[in-house]
Structure formats: structure tokens, C-alpha cells
Design a protein that fits this description.
- This protein has helices at residues 37-40, 45-58, 63-75, 83-91, 99-112, 127-131, 134-137, 170-178, 214-222, 239-246, 263-296, 298-315, 319-329, 337-349, 351-355, 360-372, 378-390; strands spanning 16-21, 116-126, 143-151, 157-162, 204-208, 226-231, 252-255.
- 32% of the residues are buried.
- A 7-stranded mixed sheet has the order 4-3-2-1-5-6-7, with helices on both faces.
- It has 391 residues and is α/β, with parallel strands linked by helices.
Length: 391
């Protein structure tokens, strides 16, 4: 089978700011399914969700898979459950004040500051319904990551194609970071040097409303980005945003009013202003690093590359990334004692690395390092013990 070539976004001269949104109760006041679909199949809203959640609990089932199954089941005998029907329900979804012109307006503000602004959806709701909204039809979003259905040859939804829940939302932030947007593109696991990252986390904004957004908020926060909690414009209930603020999950909160001059509008524009200034400094930093590496010659450049790889290994959050970084590390042989000690510390303390020390490529690399060590420290002993144990 011929390998598919995926289209990727590459880093350009202008900085890019990615604004990522949950959908339900972030851009819309209620769950999208509760704005037409649930009523059309003869349910009141609380009963539908009670039965859906009970289905999940009784069958050790993901709650999102449960609601998707129930949507297909309840549509039988009522209407043809196809993409058009879901798009039509999406067209009825209510949006918070200012959302209709928000995306283009913020893009234009970014352009005036020399910053490319891109909008992304990361939602447990339905992609087909989001695609039916007026804003999506007008090209508001660079990419919509949401739960979706597989359709049979007659165009009827029969099976989940993609399920997005709060535990797997973060994977899409890494795709956005590297410009590897297709969900089947394994290039997201490749190593990217810091200066080649298209949208570093410091240039990400995540806007959400509840606990299901916490993993994304936490990730964005921890790498210098911006997380914003929003609350309903009608109820003015700040209970959830107060809790997220107290737990250090968000940096800011505002009413879900996207109108010109609102608190949220001013907040995001301030972030764009900061991004414009900060990226000037970052570009100078990388320019100075390149000049320094060039002046020091090849050996200096190699030392810099090795240092970046060690940091990438330390930050690895997946086995695929760990293997990719180890493959790059394996290209170097002239490791000094100090570097080896750091690598042993990373292997002993990063669970992603430690867990796969018995994989052949990882074992080979770390055994080679152990042989070069003049004196074993506690981390090296732990790594050696793990390797021998697996042998």
C-alpha cells in the first residue's frame, strides 16, 4: 500500500497564535445535542443524559461513546441519521454574544500586530453539528477536533469514527504545536528542535468552561501559554471558574461574551500584543544561538543539538516520541561523563523512558552509555538494574 503524504503546516516568518476552544458552554450556552436533537426524539434533556450515562456505567463504556450510540438508537423510526441531519441540528445551535464575528475580528487584530491567529475546536461534542454552525460554514476554524461518526454506503451514521474525551484532548495540542494536523499523521511523534516548532505552547490560548478542560489548561499553563475560563452570560455563575482559578488550572477568567470591548475581547487582544513583543525577542534569541553555534564550529553545534535532544527526552510524554528521540541520540558517540549522568537521571526518573528500557533500541543505547561511565551513581545503578532485570 502506498504511504499517504499528509499536508503539514510549516513555520514561517510571522509568529502564530493558536486559540483553542471547547464548544459546549464555551461558545454555546448549552450542550449542542440539547438544542433540537434530544427534543426531536421525544426526550426531555435530563432523562436523555441520565439514560446515556447509565448505559456507560452499566457497560464499562466511555460516556461519549454511550451518548453517540444512544443518538443513533433513538433516531431510528424518527429520521435518517446522516451528516445532513446533524449539520441541520448544528445550524440551530445558539451561540454566545459576539461569537458570530469574533473569529475574523480577532484574526484581523492579530494581522495588524504582525501575528497570525488561528482558531481550533477541541470538543467532546459532535464534529458534524459544529460544522453545521454558521461560524464553521464561514471558515472560522483552522481545524475541528471533535467526536464524529463513520457513515455507511448510504450515508447513514453507523459507528464512531473519532471519540474525543477530556483525557485525550491534549493530543491535539501537540498536533497544533507541530503543524501535524491530520489525526492519522504519525509525524506528531517526530522530534522537532525548539526553533522549528510552528506554534510553541507559549503561543497557545485555551478557552474552556469546566473540569473536562483541565488537562488542556494544565498543559498550556505549564509551558507558558494562556488558559481562560469562561462563565455563562445569563446566569453569571462563577463557581466553576473560581474553582479552576483556586486550583491553578486557569490564569484568567471572563464572561463568555465575545463582543467588541468585552473583558474577554480585551484579554485576548492583550495576549496578542504580548505575543507580538515576545516573539521578537524569541527570534533574536534563536538568531544569537545560531550565530554562536556557527562561531564555535561543528563541535559546538553538535553539543547544542545533543543538549536539545536530552531536553526532548526529559520532556517525552509518549513511547513513540521516546523511541524517536533515542534514535537521534544514538547517532552520537562522543558522550562525556556529565552528559551521561544527565541521561541516566532522565532514564531513571521519566517513566516513559524507564518503562521501555527493555526495548532493544533503548537498551542498546543505554548499555553503551553504561560501558563508558567511569563511576556509577544511583541513577545509573537503577537503569542498569532495570535492564538486567528485563534480560
Amino acid at each position: 500500500m502506498e504511504k499517504k503524504m499528509y499536508k503539514r503546516k510549516m513555520k514561517g516568518d510571522e509568529p502564530v497564535l493558536a486559540i483553542c476552544y471547547d464548544f459546549d458552554k464555551t461558545l454555546s450556552p448549552d450542550d449542542m445535542q440539547a438544542q433540537g436533537y434530544i427534543q426531536s426524539v421525544g426526550y426531555n434533556i435530563p432523562d436523555f443524559w441520565t439514560e446515556s450515562n447509565q448505559l456507560a456505567e452499566n457497560n464499562d463504556m466511555d460516556q461519549n461513546l454511550a451518548y453517540m450510540y444512544k443518538m443513533i438508537q433513538e433516531a431510528e423510526g424518527n429520521f435518517v441519521f446522516n451528516k445532513k441531519a446533524l449539520n441541520d441540528y448544528g445550524a440551530k445551535v445558539e451561540l454566545f454574544p459576539g461569537v458570530e464575528d469574533w473569529f475574523e475580528r480577532i484574526r484581523q487584530y492579530g494581522k495588524s500586530k504582525g501575528v497570525i491567529v488561528e482558531h481550533y475546536i477541541i470538543s467532546s461534542g459532535l464534529k458534524e453539528m459544529i460544522e453545521g454552525t454558521s461560524v464553521a460554514k464561514h471558515g472560522a476554524f483552522e481545524k475541528i477536533y471533535a467526536s464524529s461518526f463513520y457513515y455507511n454506503e448510504r450515508g447513514v451514521a453507523v459507528w464512531p469514527a473519532q471519540v474525543v474525551n477530556y483525557t485525550n484532548k491534549t493530543q491535539f495540542l501537540f498536533r497544533i504545536e507541530k503543524g501535524v494536523l491530520d489525526i492519522n499523521d504519525q509525524g506528531v511523534n517526530e522530534y522537532f528542535s525548539p526553533e522549528d516548532i510552528r506554534i510553541p505552547f507559549r503561543n497557545m490560548v485555551y478557552i474552556g468552561d469546566s473540569d473536562t478542560d483541565i488537562p488542556c489548561m494544565k498543559l498550556v499553563n505549564s509551558y507558558g501559554g494562556h488558559s481562560i475560563g469562561v462563565y455563562n452570560t445569563s446566569t453569571k455563575d462563577k463557581t466553576k471558574v473560581y474553582k479552576m482559578m483556586r486550583d491553578n488550572r486557569i490564569r484568567y477568567f471572563a464572561e463568555a461574551d465575545y463582543s467588541v470591548g468585552s473583558e474577554l475581547d480585551n484579554l485576548v487582544k492583550t495576549i496578542i500584543d504580548r505575543t507580538a513583543s515576545n516573539e521578537i525577542l524569541e527570534s533574536k534569541f534563536f538568531a544569537y544561538k545560531k550565530e554562536c553555534a556557527k562561531a564555535e564550529g561543528k563541535s559546538g553545534g553538535d553539543a547544542q543539538k545533543r543538549s536539545e535532544l536530552i531536553l526532548a527526552l526529559e520532556d517525552s510524554r509518549s513511547f513513540a516520541t521516546t523511541h524517536a528521540v533515542v534514535a537521534e541520540l544514538g547517532k552520537y558517540e562522543d558522550w562525556n561523563e556529565a552528559e551521561i549522568k544527565v541521561l541516566m537521571k532522565v532514564a531513571a526518573n521519566n517513566t516513559q523512558v524507564f518503562y521501555i528500557l527493555n526495548d532493544s533500541d533503548v537498551t542498546l543505547f543505554f548499555k553503551g552509555l553504561l560501558e563508558k561511565m567511569k563511576k556509577r551513581d544511583k541513577n545509573a545503578e537503577k537503569v542498569e538494574e532495570k535492564i538486567n532485570e528485563e534480560d
